[in-house]
# Entry
Amino acid sequence: MALRDRVRVLVDGRRFQRVVIAVIVVNAITLGCETSTALVAAYGGLFDALDHAALVFFVVELAARLFAHRARFFRDPWNCFDFVVIGVSLLPAAGPLSVVRALRILRVLRLVSMVPSMRRVVTALVRSIPGLLSLSGLLVLMLYVGSVVAINLFRASGDARFADLGSTILTLFQITTGDGWSDVMRDLMVAQPLAWLFFLVYLLVGTFTMLNLFIAVVCSAMESESAPPASAPDDRLLNEVRALREEVRALRLDPVGDRG
# Structure
């Protein structure tokens, strides 16, 4: 077996994948511990050593995968994701680029590319983006229409939350998320007792309907992603079809004289 084939078997093996996941988890714990001033004061040197060791391991692992798969490496979007994450980690973290040091935590996101179940979830979310964009446009339209109606209904109350279009859109977006909508409604009901009708209709349409549609689109994409692949045709049926074709071809080539 050639060296390239041996490296490919190694990096694609389950044991090696488990080692990579273990290193990612340890590195994530280390980066979390570095946020504690007391732990850094006591074990700062150990944390730095573990961080550098993890980075060296990731670079070697990425180089091995590049060597094993060559140009095919970049055909997989998850490999490109790993390449970018490790590339960011290699940027100098001094001077104006000191903020790059905080981006080391992006290595933890490599768990998404290493764990198949996480990959399926993210793939489903990406596939649901077109539907989510359409629903987002519908939500924006609903916010705009509801804001215009709310301004005409509640501007006279003197409530600053409905003084102009921008403030009203922000207020209705807050209501859509379910944050403090009852307080807004009760404040308006002091001057306009029937204000609850608007909020009832808006909550039914905006919160219960629109947000559930978002969930439905994502769930549909996840179901299609996790659905089993279509079963392959039966080999015996294919063999019978091939045999029939051969018989038809033989009949066509048979001389006329031989048929008598």
Observations:
- The chain has two domains: 3-114, 129-226.
